[in-house]
Amino acid sequence: MSTDATTDHPPTLIGRLTAQVDCPVVAPTDRGYDAARLGWNRTVTMSPDAVAMTNDRGDVQAALRTARELGVPLHVQATGHGTLTSATSGLLINLSSMNDVHIDTERMLATVGPGATWNDVNRASATHGLGSLSGRCATVGVTGYTLGGGSGWLSRTYGYAADSALEAEIVTATGDIVTVDRHRHADLHWAIRGGGGNFGIVTSLTFRLFPARRVFAGMSFYPVERAADIFRAYRDWSLDEPDGMNTAVLLMRLPPAPAIPAAARGRQVVALRAFALCDEREGRNQLDAVLKVAGPALHDGFAERDFAEASAATNGPDAPPMPHRQLVHLFDSVDDDLIDQVVNGEGRAAGAPYAFIELRHWGGAMAETTSDSGPAGHRSTPYSILAVAPYLTPDRSAVDTQVDRLDRLCHSRATGGSFLTLLTRPELTATAFTDRHFGMLREIKSRWDPDDILQPSHHIPPLHTYSSPSHAPSIKTSTEE
Ligand SMILES: Cc1cc2nc3c(=O)[nH]c(=O)nc-3n(C[C@H](O)[C@H](O)[C@H](O)COP(=O)(O)OP(=O)(O)OC[C@H]3O[C@@H](n4cnc5c(N)ncnc54)[C@H](O)[C@@H]3O)c2cc1C
Question: What is the whole-number distance in angstroms between the Cα of residue 119 and the centre of ligand 1?
């Protein structure tokens, strides 16, 4: 496929596209262009020659075939939360209008269009006492999140979102429509449960929901002076964390926004997050050892809530799209020295740029492998450190210097593995998989997209085009399944 944008590409593309699809086609000169193309991380610029605002699978099929026939680069976006690489040409298929949600309460299943967000699902399912494997931010797209693995509020209890994906309708790279599940095109069904958007464009996804009428959940804030003690207490407590608990501890700099509790507003604080399918008394009992060390809270945010409210309360107010840096590392263990250097050394250093640095305990159901598991995740890895640093001024060098230092510190102690939906460095895509799974994904890519039409930010190339060793740095956990 040619990636050259010749001068007559845009008019040819827009003309052909308009003739082929029934949906709006947005050109760079149109008023709706920015809304149709922009992603969440504003360091990335998605500037296609045309955007097809698809309304149904027929539009997706026609748009993909048009891009293929013209040999222009093809991009796919639902919400833009996972758009990590800039583009200066080609066709963007924007799926956001295809946001239907159907809840089957009897079978506890949801079937969604590819533009549905977790907000759409959680609002629809919570009224039936059902919860999902959604994560931190409910404006994230269900399909993009699930295709990349998806680690959410109930993942220690029920596994990755990808583990719950039972059936998908897919427009393949050749423009055919197939339905995949564990019996039909089982290879493709396996690959899309962790391998991202490399294997086709999903136009419908069916996945499990879980009973979650009342949830013990929320986020409590503590003075930053107790940060290292609380992180250590959390690490020690997590060694025996019940699978029913889903938790994390964060060093957070909260904005001076009215939505933030007054005692924590505009301050750097420690936050403890918890999400569990139990009542409040049980939840607080489970957390007792950490709460004792944490001491009096600046704001106690734990309560029993329905699923949608619990998700919002545990995340806190949604941050707006912004330019930022994110890093994630996985760890087999987190010792006192690492906590001290990350929390006191980097996180609390003068001018530290982090919106948050999170230590999360994984494991539980995420660590379980069955014969049906997809390629998502390094299942045996128990801890992650995730940090997000916004660029608040045009000069990014001061932020980069500090984030690079934290990155080097974490890298020196980490496994070298990663988790696809949290990884923001496309050149490290291979580190999200075991060597065996990455090889299998490339084989399946060769079968379903040999011409490499679909090149998402986390690109998995077909076997014959892969040569650069920089795409596949060695992973210390490479032998795990
Ligand atoms: C604020 C924030 C919070 C987050 N919280 C979590 C979290 O708690 N847990 C977690 O695991 N991840 C989390 N993520 C990461 C998120 O899951 C990924 O960025 C995910 O890829 C977003 O999917 P999307 O559809 O919203 O984004 P998009 O940018 O629209 O899509 C992301 C990728 O998926 C592909 N894609 C999307 N839809 C389809 C489709 N229908 N068919 C084929 N390919 C498709 C696109 O090609 C693109 O490469 C978070 C991200 C942000 C920005």
Answer: 14
